[in-house]
Specification:
Number of helices: 7
Largest sheet: 4 strands, mixed
Order of helices and strands: EHEHEHEHEEHHEEEHE
Helix content: 10-25%
Distance between the termini: 26 Å
């Protein structure tokens, strides 16, 4: 049973490696995998190759359609399952822990007001029982209690918690950098590093950079 109302504004969280920040600022946008410019700029992936292969072909049943890789993905909360997998070495070829991982934060309302097309889900995007929506009035379909939870493992009386924790919001094709409303980092050392990178791009929006250790495991 859903036991928390949708927050307003509805924050969205995208986790990226800090090494990618220069590339994102150079491009001036976040791009979907299928819409990434062929500009030769480096980009460090932090995702499981097997999961990404499945997302490449997973159809989106509403909104603009296409597949999941036609969208820029965000979660509805921090402390994602993916972050825990990255911390504990469960993602092949990633062994750097949480410190280099930063959150780019925007809101669903800002995305809509900017005229971007989008969809969102009530659970893991690859799960059979996940439902999809393209109307913010349906945000109450997301389980906000579990989305915001630090502990989300399946329980004997609820074996669907982990799926619901991974509800996501997908932005069609690209999201302009100006819609980044904030950046969250693990500690002050990373805050200084991020702000140094931002200072190299005075033409771009400079969102507030905040240490949020409670957003990390």
């Amino acid at each position: 049973m859903l036991n928390a109302a949708p927050p307003y504004p509805t924050r969205l969280y995208r986790l990226v490696h800090v090494d990618n920040l220069t590339t994102l600022l150079t491009r001036g946008a976040l791009h979907a995998p299928n819409c990434t410019p062929n500009d030769g700029l480096p980009y460090r992936t932090i995702h499981s190759a097997a999961v990404q292969a499945s997302r490449q072909v997973k159809p989106v049943p509403c909104g603009p359609g296409g597949t999941v890789h036609d969208y820029v993905p965000f979660y509805f909360g921090p402390l994602s399952v993916m972050l825990l997998n990255l911390k504990t070495g469960r993602v092949p070829d990633y062994h750097e822990g949480q410190a280099p991982l930063i959150y780019l934060v925007t809101t669903a309302q800002a995305v809509q007001q900017a005229g971007c097309r989008f969809v969102f889900s009530d659970g893991h995007g690859l799960a059979r029982f996940t439902h999809w929506y393209d109307d913010l009035t349906r945000l109450d379909e997301v389980d906000w209690a579990i989305v915001g939870a630090r502990y989300w493992s399946d329980q004997p009386d609820d074996n669907d918690r982990q799926r619901r924790k991974q509800a996501e919001f997908l932005v069609w094709q690209a999201l302009d950098w100006s819609l980044t409303r904030g950046i969250a980092v693990l500690n002050n050392t990373m805050r200084q590093r991020v702000e140094t990178i931002l200072d190299q791009f005075p033409q771009r929006a400079h969102p507030t950079v905040s240490p949020k250790p409670d957003w990390y495991y």
